[in-house]
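Q: Enoyl reductase (ER) domain-containing protein, please. Structure only.
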Amino acid sequence: MSVNYCTSVGEKTTYKAAVCFDYKKPLVIQEKKKPTRLSKGQVLVAIEAAGINFSDILMCKGLYQVKPPLPFTAGSEICGYVEDIGESVSNVQKGDKVIGILSNYGGFAEYGVFHKSTLFKLPEALSTVQGAGTIISYGTAMMALGRRAQLQKGETVLITAAAGATGLAAVDIASHVFGAKVIGLCGSEKKCHLIKERGVSHAIDYNTEDVRGRIKEITGGKGVNVVMDQVGGDIFLQCLKSVAEEGRILTVGYASGTIPNIPANLLLLKSCTVMGLFWGNYSQTNPSAFTQSILDVTRAINHGDIYPHVGATFSLSQINAGFSYVENRKSTGKVIITTMDGAKSML
Ligand SMILES: NC(=O)c1ccc[n+]([C@@H]2O[C@H](COP(=O)([O-])OP(=O)(O)OC[C@H]3O[C@@H](n4cnc5c(N)ncnc54)[C@H](OP(=O)(O)O)[C@@H]3O)[C@@H](O)[C@H]2O)c1
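A: Structure for Enoyl reductase (ER) domain-containing protein:
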């Protein structure tokens, strides 16, 4: 194996990382030895910010489909700058500001080693914290609405947890890339206000309003063409009952903690289709479709069509508070962990 010794390691020989030692306990900040060697195709990134995803929280509780061996450093998407490159790396150079994904974990840290194919140049329009919260939510929403549901201009799409990370990305993309009419469901008046600002034509608070009645009224009894659901449980079933003839329903997540059982007769009655999406898995099963979903996002950002919303930032030492903030449904858009002081000034 070809190995490159890092040349620009500077003074620092260790770095901080948020480590999961026990599924039942909070993460612990641990000092780790900084990598000094890079293999072919590897890139050393000084991480400045990392996005929190619901899956990171589930993984640290041992509740996600991927269970890394303990202990592990959590975190799956970042923004930072390239500190060093291994052999055969030409897509990024030392000093480049990049956004990147890790296959499942390693991002809540001051340094990370990435494969070159998982790094992309930070779009100029984005700040560091926005960049750290872009790839997973926007890549998922782009693939869900485009490749999977084949959303068409003028169609009506219903999005659940619409003020959340994936939901708000879907609102942005459905409205501003696909030209769809968007109805958003979320859990408070404040969140309804935000999603209206970000592109939905109608916002429904599913804690206080009659979801099916409102959708019937908004669509003139026809129902919606596409549903993108991040919540599962009873909300999924209400959405399924609100779909139009030949509608498409995307099951993307189960933030409620309940995986819904789907009565097949409802699919028959509406001649509709339920489809799943496991976006991250495409990096293994269909890398070109996976990369394309990210490139479609960065292109739309560079055109000025869409931009990610960062609702809050926490420092690396406050990571457990950041997790609680998302779990307790306080977050809007993306919540970002920063490794630098003065993070708020980067918003
Ligand atoms: N399939 C994929 O490829 C893929 C990719 C990305 C994410 N996901 C999944 O999509 C879901 C959302 O992920 P995210 O990172 O975008 O999170 P998020 O939407 O930022 O946060 C979760 C949101 O879900 C809503 N929610 C409803 N019931 C909840 C409950 N019992 N507990 C907590 N939240 C609840 C809350 O919004 P309200 O208060 O407005 O209800 C909350 O803000 C997760 O299940 C995640 O695993 C799947």
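A: Brief note, in case it's useful. Confidence is low (pLDDT under 50) at residues 342-347.
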